[in-house]
Amino acid sequence: MEDIAAAPAKARLPEGDRSLLLVDDDRPFLQRMSRALESRGFAVATAESVAEGLAAMRTSAPAYAVVDLRLGDGNGLEIVERLQRAREDARVVVLTGYGNIATAVSAVKLGAIDYLAKPADADEVIAALLRDPGDRAEPPENPMSADRVRWEHIQRVYEMCDRNVSETARRLSMHRRTLQRILAKRAPR
């Protein structure tokens, strides 16, 4: 992975509030991304958990946020939801190493403007944060594999069942323990 602090900014920041909340439980990634975003003109506040992220928003809701989906103490979508309630014009990008369609849809429904898979560099994050609402992201170069499509389907049903493993297993006609093993793994390529 290239050094995210070294890449030049390709998009100009709009004038006005440049406050940004960066929430990720991977400390080295958090520090590198924070430095990279600060060097591009953002006023960055960092948090390593859902609780810290929510606490950082109590004083003032930021104009931008970059939030990891899976955090040690919960789901980053809690932060997205609270931020959208506190500040409707906030622009939020969700990052995750466990990307799937169901959680991407949930993130967008809660107010996120984009959903990026890790490792994402600062230029990708800034492009997503500053993209005009009418612009669409480029389609992926490689289509999903059959294993990935199966995994996506399981994730979609899991989200439809409100993350209830037993109900999801019943609907998929799958043993609950098998489903738990699948859910604990990263998405196939």
From TrEMBL:
Write down what this protein is called.
ActR/PrrA/RegA family redox response regulator transcription factor
Q: Which domain of life is it from?
A: Bacteria
Q: Which organism is it from?
A: Antarcticirhabdus aurantiaca
